[in-house]
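Fold sample X.
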Amino acid sequence: MEKLYKNIENNLEEMVALETLLTSIPAMAPESEGQGELKKCEALEKWLKEHGITDLTRYDAPDSRVESGIRPNLVATIPGKSDDYSIWVMAHMDVVPVGDLSMWETDPWKVERKDGKIYGRGVEDNQQGLVAGIFAVLAYLQTGEKPAHTVKLLFVADEEVGSDYGISYLLREHNLFRKEDLIVIPDGGDSEGVTLEVAEKNLLWMRITTKGKQAHGSRPDEGANAFLANCELAMKLNDLENFFGKTDDLFEPNHSTFQPTKKEENVPNINTIPGDDVFCMDCRILPCYKLDEVRKEVRRRMDEVEAKYGVTITYTEPQAVESPATSVEAPVVKKLAKAIETVNGKKAYPIGIGGGTVGAYLRIAGFDATVWGTLDETAHQPNEYCILNNLINDAKVLATLMNE
């Protein structure tokens, strides 16, 4: 392993160069006014081939919203001494928009290196995990060693906007995984690299539309104030945190959360009672509660508000995900924890999170997966950065896992 570790350390400049290449190619979903991941995927394919990783397979999801018509998913296969199971390292190619450009101290599409960090959109989310997986594999190829088991590097599309053209597409249309495979998703974690995410809260997003009757601001008696009704409804739905009040210390926070978030514009002027009003809820629910029982209580509270204010309330679910947990005794959890301790001398431990990773889709399909990484969690923020020592150590951990 020392030979592999030394190779990884010596490849730091190549790591930065690959991060620089990938950052220079914005890969945003059409929901973010982007053209998807194809150009970035093609650049990555070319780079991998030039560096000796040649067993590549593309799985293109059709998407008429982008000019190319496809959203690419790429698998690189590296043979191991045994093929009794595969070790998957799964990262995503897409990134989020830069947001308010004035808040960036650097050009978000050009990597800048300073004080042991690199800055740029995507350098941590998810290129740190993507690059770490690649250089863990290259350490084997460049030293003439062979991993203990077949390694599969999976680079997916569409992680940031729902995964319909990424892991969900692959699970629907292709039979890639085996039950015994180890699946690591280096796309979340903590600054010490010791938390292994094995469970997610159930996720329910709601877009709530309330229709009343518009009226003049001086005559509320002649209208039905949809905004006022939604204000009460938002409070009633927030109170579900008490109604579904169980706790589980695997998660932080350790309880279910029901939070009003986005509020859409209703009327343009102050002196009009709004007849239509829309707001959204982000609900993260402990797995001990089923979404159907939540939906039933949500509807009951909506009915109360309808009766009180004389309005009609409907809602859609932009996202609804209900997933089981990966057992803390699963091989992927135990072996990854062992690899972390070997490299960093630290004891890793399992946690649950609020929800929203691709791990949920794998667990729903019956595959054990864990989300891990050594991150300062600057994802989606201005001045996103990757600490280069974290990049090196994560590559070492993955290389160690590949030798288990």
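Fold sample Y, listed below.
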Amino acid sequence: MTSSDVPDNRWSDLERPPLNATALRRALVRPGSLWTSLDVVASTGSTNSDLRERAAGLDEGAVLVAEEQSAARGRLDRVWSAPARSGLFLSVLLRPSPRIPAERWGWLPLLTGVAVATGLSRAAGIDTALKWPNDLLVTVPEDSGRRRPGEATVGAERKAGGILAERTADGAVVIGVGLNVSLRADELPVPTAGSLALAGAVTTDRDPLLRAVLRSLEQWYGEWRAADGDPAASRLQEAYAAGCSTLGRTVRAELPGGASLTGEAVAVDGDGRLVLATEDGVQPVGAGDIVHLRPV
């Protein structure tokens, strides 16, 4: 790994300046804060892998941010790629209290989604929808050149980010967040991808965006931890349902092992599972890929 604090390459790309690690530490790592350390590296394979390997020697609240990742992973080891300094690529180390039942730890990636969406609403001025279980969606306006005069602007939901939670050998949790910030249309890895810039964010300055995301995560994690992981008492279940674009849609759940379920997504239950109303009755889904078949 190479530190991005190297001064002689700081402004090598004026459109995508590097993060200011010193200023970020000053703003976020302070007495009483969840965040105990913050490192920014120029390039690495995967921040999640790096933080998992180092977890045993770190306190809760360690943050690792990369300007570029060469082997970033999503769920099911899917590859996540983006140009250097075009997004936020970070992982955080959390050590939930032993008082919190293990079955409630499954709420951590959903909690992170709520926190990211809340932070981006404040700092970027856009709505970020949550696709169960771990995708971050933005609405990207369709090409205005294809619209007839007087026709309303139509937007399409696009994936701008994802969340990956992994356990460490010493029983902690590493949560990774990948978020496309300044990607242009010709840089998108797939047609269904999006970015904050394409969604009309008021800023693509990653320093305030990162501060907003981490402060929001600190707040939501603190409330969840204070409630011993209870998603109802911490308001997490309510907040997730309010921001989840999967609810109210007809979806197909592609389950581990090759099976699938089709039905209307009607709720997220107390265990963080997606509840589908199918022809055969109500079915909770704890893991799988969700395909949106019908808009809300």
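Sample Y note: Residues 31 and 154 are 47 Å apart (CA to CA).
Also: The two ends are 44 Å apart (CA to CA).
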